[in-house]
Predict the structure.
Amino acid sequence: MIIFGSRGLDLKRGEGNFFCPNCQTDRPYTLKERKRMGHLYWIPLLPLGSLGKFVECKACREIFHEDAQHTETNASISNKLDVAIKTALSAVILSDSVTDKNELEFGSKLISEFTSKETNVEDLQNDLEYFDKSEMHSSLSEISQHLTEQGKVNIVEKCVMMSLVDGDIADEEIDTIKEVAVALGIPDGYVPGIIQNTIERISNKG
């Protein structure tokens, strides 16, 4: 008696990291394709077509639609936030065309404190030499969708703190801070209030 039939066979098509909806954190995944295979005596011999691809979490083993592999990871979002903060602060430092030692020291301290990357004065100085302000808007706009309103305000406040290092805030610095706010989705009309609140908070701490 000849035994013939068909069954599904899962074939590995790739792997990577994704945000697992079940684990609610970043996990490694395997991309698989389920093939319908004709078998003879339970030995798969004849491919009968594809039943589709899916993503399997290597941690919890749950499976998801193949589009899940493109879900942005927490690590990717964190990296974009680091870049956005560093970009915004760099723009403020360079906006008044005067960069002194105090600014570099404070700027490197802020970047180290509010990002995952330790930055010293030499690192910041080198980065400023190659800084391209034209990339600031896209960098901030991209991260804004992942931030709460307070999170956006926090970045603007850091820019205000940066601008205060060399004394009063110059008009050029205010213009840059407004650009940062608008790129994050905050109306520039809110900037004077954020500046005032930041100055008052710093004064109260002092």
